[in-house]
Amino acid sequence: MSKSTAIIFARAGRRFIQPRPVTLFREPIEWVDTTRYLGVTLDTRLTWSPHIDQVKKSTAQRRGILGPLLNMKSDLSIRNGILLYKQSI
């Protein structure tokens, strides 16, 4: 299994025929529509939509985990609650 992927960035409205296969060290590289690079999700049109969706999903998961700790009935101090919240963001 390879960590490498191939992607073509283009303006909206541009169409490409099926690109030729790409190989690296005699292993085929998969063509994809979205990929992650340095923590940022990139798509073929270089819009932020896939990255924003990923960040929203990650944030919702973190808020779900912190919910019981940050609610009004929690024994956790406000100062520590704010610290936990900032650390998760």
Characterization of the model:
There is one protein chain. By secondary structure, this protein is α+β, with helices and mostly antiparallel strands. The chain folds into two domains: 1-46, no CATH class; 48-89. It contains two helices and five strands. The protein has helices at residues 49-70, 78-88, and strands spanning 5-6, 22-24, 27-31, 34-37, 40-43. Strands 1-3-2 form a three-stranded mixed β-sheet, with no helix packed on it. Strands 4-5 form a two-stranded antiparallel sheet. A hairpin with a 2-residue loop joins strand 4 (34-37) and strand 5. Helix 1 packs antiparallel against helix 2 (78-88). The radius of gyration is 20 Å and the shape is elongated. The relative contact order is 0.12.
Distance between the termini: 32 Å
Main sheet characteristics: 3 strands, mixed
What percentage of amino acids are in beta strands? 15-25%
Across the major sheet, the strand order is: 1-3-2
Number of helices: 2
Domains, number = 2
List its traits.
2 domains, 2 helices, 89 residues, alpha+beta, two-stranded antiparallel ribbon
